[in-house]
Design a protein that fits this description.
The complex is a heterodimer. By secondary structure, chain A is an alpha+beta fold. Chain A contains ten helices and 24 strands. Chains A and B meet through helix 1, helix 3, helix 4, strand 2 and strand 3 of A and helix 1, helix 2, helix 3, helix 4 and strand 10 of B.
């Protein structure tokens, strides 16, 4: 082992790294797997035994002809069927780290069920890298991908114009594609809506140009390489922890009633002092909270009750403040009846719960949606029954127009109105990535049917979009 | 953009928490998942082998419900070929935390003739039957595992909440999409769900967390002297169920274990990492994956883990 190269002191003095989640999306054959393989390889996330296995398979398949070489795309194949068929079927998660950041990469397949996979990958992503083949430019599928990313309000959209080596590193080709991308962005509001930003980078995944290091072969490009961008963009949680609107869906109540954990007793806790201990456990979905803050408890069917935060606990530590995405336990000054499914929010920042749900639905199931259908809606920590009142249209992702439709099929994105069996504290997804999101679930087999994004009620005043 | 954010954090009170470290973010995500499963399922259990990932899982569970008790039992599938010091550690930990321990025994299934010993002597793949039997007998509807997506290419495709059918099988081509932090654990009678709260952790994250939280592990994770012999390019411990063949020389080496499974298929690595911070340095500099370096059962084929998982393995 070559442990001498790294000194323990380096690790101890280094600043703690932050976590950044990103996804990749692209059309067939635009070199996405190669790009992912290149990022993993050049950031040294691929270890010797994995590389040996890929080198063996590359040689078996005659990759690179007589010269040989390693097919980096093989690094991302996970399942037997994927290796056998040479395609990617399902989202695969990959991990690598630099000195600054730990990365979680959701590698989303492009050709089969691209909407389903892109929606899934983008829902948790801080950034999405969309690939374009420099020889082909902006395709219909690029427009579809960007449309989905705008809908899911991904904070950072990066378009990698790949195979720039195959157009002789031509600046004019790149500038043409860049202008087309910016045009699509303007049509969608992507990059100019104050919610997202849009970057275009020329790369060669095969040779590594502008992937990890800036390339000398694109002297006309003065921007950063892809990895530099990924290392410096703020994560969505960082941005959302600054929002005014503290939100905390209650997961469960911690109430030991004097029966403390043996290790808590061993740590010196007095069971008697904790007899009336009652704290609400959850993860902060946005904003931050301090001890003494005024908060509202939102219980469906009741009017909001206002109290103050008496304490913020986490595993034996008392915190003065906490922010998204921390998991904590909150104690309140008043003894309210609070249960799973309730939400604790900054006082005066939430509007009334509603049983009428207007939403964009990304349909993810082979079973089509029909009007009148009974479904379950999972929102925050609450699941309620619902009925689909009507489908008001289906998005044409290439033209960004809403077309008339009365049902939704796999990979469709449409607008629908649902009636809920109990009111929920719904918020516009545009402003609230967590409390504006929900799942539509099939009550028969429990499968997830759709990803839902809450929209404002028609006729409601559309709030001014906040600036990040 | 990062510059303006830094300026902003100087004026906000939440300066510290807006830049959560990657370990804090991973811990927070894992605790959220553990709490979701406890809130939504009737009878969860945690797979606990005394291995480092399951020890971290149990530590996270104690933090999730502090100062209350961990509200579920732990389940161990004992191959009968476990390292004695790991079984001892398991029992001490269960005792210390006042947990209920459920054991599924591979040996008992072999003794009853319901499982047959494999020609290669490894018992890791034999754990599936006792595992599914224990889940069924105890009516567990959710089982926490310490599986991580960076361990293996089939695990890279795994969901955080992963549905298992009546036969405990995993269908990788028909998985539910997992969106935002909304986990769908609905299942019908007979089905159960495997929950993997530390899916997004890497081996290095695990070790950094063990170091930061000062978590106790079985001693064999740290460098020690042991009688070993070379087989399949790994150092195998000499033990009751792990005997050298006549042509395999036994020597004493300073080794540690990167993974702890069945004695019959887990190899040691040469190491001078005596402390947790030594191990962090060693793992950061390692050029081999933990399973590639130490697990004979994953070397059987490129899809060894995928095939075991489809049958209901961890």
């Amino acid at each position: 082992m070559t442990t001498e190269a790294v000194l323990p002191a380096d690790l101890e003095t280094a600043l703690p790294t932050t976590l950044f989640r990103f996804a990749t999306a692209g059309s067939v054959d635009d070199g996405k797997s190669t790009l992912v393989g290149r990022l993993l390889h050049d950031s040294k996330a691929i270890l010797a035994d994995q590389l040996d296995a890929v080198a063996r398979t590359s040689a078996d398949r005659g990759f690179g002809g007589d010269k040989g070489g390693i097919d980096l795309a093989l690094l991302t194949d996970g399942l037997r069927a994927e290796r056998e068929q040479g395609i990617t079927i399902d989202v695969a998660y990959r991990y690598f780290a630099t000195d600054q950041r730990s990365f979680i990469l959701a590698d989303c397949p492009g050709h089969v069920q691209y909407t389903k996979n892109t929606v899934t990958g983008a829902s948790t992503a801080d950034a999405v890298v969309v690939l374009i083949d420099a020889r082909k430019g902006v395709l219909e599928q690029t427009r579809r991908h960007l449309s989905v990313l705008q809908l899911l309000r991904v904070a950072h959209v990066i378009v990698a114009v790949n195979k720039i080596d195959l157009v002789d590193f031509s600046e004019s080709v790149f500038r043409g594609i860049e202008a087309d991308v910016q045009q699509v962005g303007r049509e969608l509001g992507l990059g100019s809506d104050g919610i997202s930003d849009l970057l275009v980078i020329p790369v060669s995944a095969l040779d590594g140009d502008n992937v990890v290091d800036r390339s000398e072969r694109t002297p006309w490009y003065t921007g950063p390489a892809l990895l530099e961008v990924l290392e410096t963009l703020p994560a969505a949680d960082e941005l959302e922890s600054h929002l005014e609107s503290f939100r905390f869906p209650v997961q469960l109540v911690i109430r030991p009633q004097g029966a403390l954990a043996p290790d808590a007793v061993a740590a010196g806790l007095d069971a008697e002092a904790y007899r009336d201990y009652r704290a609400y456990a959850g993860q902060i979905t946005e904003g931050s909270v301090k001890v003494g803050d005024k908060v509202s408890v939102l219980t469906p069917g009741q009017s909001p009750r206002t109290t103050t935060v008496a304490g913020i606990d986490f595993a034996g530590a008392s915190l003065q403040e906490a922010a998204a995405p921390q998991s904590v336990a909150i104690r309140l000054a008043d003894e309210f009846d609070v249960a799973r499914g309730d939400t604790i929010a900054a006082a005066g920042t939430v509007r009334e719960a509603s049983a009428d749900l207007y939403a964009a639905l990304c349909w993810l199931s082979p079973k089509p949606l029909r009007e009148g259908q009974k479904v379950l809606v999972k929102h925050g920590t609450r699941t309620v029954q619902a009925m689909v009142r009507n489908v008001s249209g289906k998005l044409d992702l290439a033209t960004f127009k809403l077309e008339a439709a009365s049902n939704l099929e796999l990979n469709d994105i449409g607008h629908a109105q649902l009636r809920l069996a109990a009111p929920l504290p719904l918020e516009n997804y545009l402003h609230h990535r967590r409390t504006g999101a929900f799942l539509v679930i099939d009550p028969l087999d429990g499968n997830t049917l759709a990803a839902g994004l809450v929209k404002d009620h028609p006729g409601d005043h559309e709030d001014e979009r906040y600036s990040i | 953009m990062s510059t303006s954010l830094t300026e902003e954090t100087q004026v906000t009170d939440a300066a510290v928490s807006t830049r959560l470290s990657s370990l804090d973010t991973l811990e927070s995500e894992a605790i959220h998942i553990i709490r979701e499963v406890v809130a939504e399922f009737e009878k969860p259990a945690l797979l606990f082998s005394g291995g480092k990932d399951s020890v971290v899982m149990l530590h996270l569970a104690t933090k999730a419900f502090w100062p209350g008790k961990v509200p579920f039992p732990v389940l161990h599938v004992d191959t009968g070929h476990n390292f004695p010091e790991v079984i001892d550690f398991r029992d001490r930990t269960v005792e210390r935390l006042g947990l209920k321990l459920v054991v599924g025994s591979v040996q008992e299934f072999i003794d009853r003739g319901e499982l047959a010993e494999r020609a290669d002597g490894t018992r890791n793949p034999l754990q599936t039957v006792p595992l599914l039997d224990a889940i069924q007998q105890n009516k567990f509807d959710a089982v926490f595992g310490g599986g991580r997506r960076d361990e293996d290419k089939a695990r890279a495709k795994e969901r955080i909440l992963s549905l298992r059918d009546e036969f405990g099988q995993w269908d990788p081509r028909n998985q539910r999409p997992e969106l935002w932090n909304l986990y769908n654990g609905r299942h019908t009678v007979g089905q159960h769900v495997r929950a993997f709260p530390i899916s997004n952790w890497t081996e290095l994250d695990i070790w950094r967390y063990i170091e930061r939280e000062n978590i106790e592990l079985p001693g064999l994770y740290y460098a020690h002297e042991r009688e070993v012999f070379a087989r399949d390019g790994m150092w195998r411990a000499v033990g009751e169920v792990s005997q050298p063949r006549p042509d395999e020389d036994v020597i004493t080496k300073t080794v540690r274990y990167r993974t702890v499974g069945d004695m019959s298929c887990t190899g040691a690595v040469e190491s001078n990492a005596y402390t947790v911070s030594d191990v962090v340095v060693e793992v950061a500099a390692s050029t081999l994956t933990e399973r590639g370096a130490t697990r004979a059962d994953d070397r059987i084929s490129e899809a060894a883990m995928e095939d075991r998982k489809k049958d209901g393995y961890f």
